[in-house]
Amino acid sequence: MIALLPTTLRAADGDSPAEKLLLASRPLVIGHRGYCQIAPENSLPSFKLAKTAGADLVELDYYHTQDGQLIVIHDDTLDRTTDAVAKWGGKQIRVDSKTLAELKTLDAGKWFDPQFTGTTLPTLNEALDLIQDGNVTLIERKAGDAAACVKLLSERKLINRVVVHAFDWQYLADFHRLEPKQVLSALGPLWARDGRKVTDTEKVLSPEWIELALKSGVRAMGWNNQVTKESVAYAHRKKLKVWIYTINDPAEADRLLDLGVDGIITNNTALMWRTLALRRAKASK
Ligand code: G3P
Ligand code: CA
C-alpha cells in the first residue's frame, strides 16, 4: 500500500516548478523584464504579455523602498522609467529614498508609450500574484539582504516555485544558507573579483567562474554571450544550467543554442519561440 504523504512533502523539490524547469529537455525562453520590447519593462502589462507569449520564466528586478517594501524596477533611480523627475524635480531620485505610498503615485508606463499611461510600479507581491498564476517568476535582486526575500517567499509559500538570481554571489550564498531548497542562479560576469577589476578576457564563462559560483549553492548561471562550447559543457558536468542574457537576435540565439546553452533571456519572447521552432523544423528534415 502506498501511504499518502502530506502535501508539503509531496510538493517537495522534485515536483516544484523551479526544479521542473531545470529538468526541461529543451531550451527555456525567459522573458526579460516581462515582454519589454512591446510594453514598459518590469510592469504588470509587460508580465502579462510575457505570460501570453508563453515565457517559461518571467524575469523582473526588485529594490527596497524607504519603508522596507519590495518594489519592482530595474534602475536604482526613478528617472528613466517613471515621471518622478517631472513630478518632484531634481535628478537621480533614488528608489530607496521614497516610501511605497510615494512610489505608487508615479506613472511608470507613459515614458514607454502613451497607451500605457496610468501604469504604476508593481510591488514584488503584485508581480508574483500575476506571474505565479500559471508561470514561474525569475526574481532578480538588485538591492537588499536575502532574509527579506526569503521571508516574503516563505510567507507566500513560494519557495522553489520561483527562481532567484543575482549578480551578488554573497547574497546567493546567504539565500542558500537560509533556504537550501530554493533554486538559485548566479549572474555574471562580475565586474570585480578578488578586489580587482575583471579584464575583458576574464569575462568569458570559465571553469574558475563555475567553481566559484558553485560555492553559493546555485543550480544555474546567467551569463552574457561570452560563453564557449567547452565552458557550457563544463557547467553541465557540474550539473549547472546556463542561461544567456539578453538575446533578441535569432541568429545570435542560434549560435548560442549550438553551443548547448539551456535558456535564452530575451526582450522578445515570441521571436525566440519562433527561433526554437525553426531549429526544430530544420533538425527534423
Ligand atoms: O536576466 C539577466 C539580466 O536581467 C541582468 O541584467 O541589467 O537586465 O538586470 P539587467
Ligand atoms: Ca534583470
Q: Care to describe what's here?
A:
The structure is a single chain. The chain is an alpha/beta fold and 285 residues long. The chain has one domain (17-76, 122-284): Phosphatidylinositol (PI) phosphodiesterase (TIM Barrel). Helix content is 34%, strand content 16%. It has twelve helices and eleven strands. It has helices at residues 7-10, 17-22, 44-52, 84-88, 100-103, 124-131, 146-155, 169-178, 207-214, 229-237, 250-258, 269-283; strands at residues 28-31, 57-64, 70-72, 136-141, 163-166, 184-187, 192-193, 196-197, 220-223, 241-244, 263-266. The radius of gyration is 19 Å and the shape is globular. The structure holds SN-glycerol-3-phosphate (G3P) and calcium ion (CA). Residues 59, 61, 140 line the site of calcium ion. SN-glycerol-3-phosphate is lined by residues 32, 59, 61, 74, 140, 187, 222, 245-246, 265.
How would you summarize what this structure contains?
It is built from twelve helices and eleven strands. With 285 residues, the chain is α/β, with parallel strands linked by helices. It has one domain: Alpha-Beta Barrel (TIM Barrel), CATH 3.20.20.190.
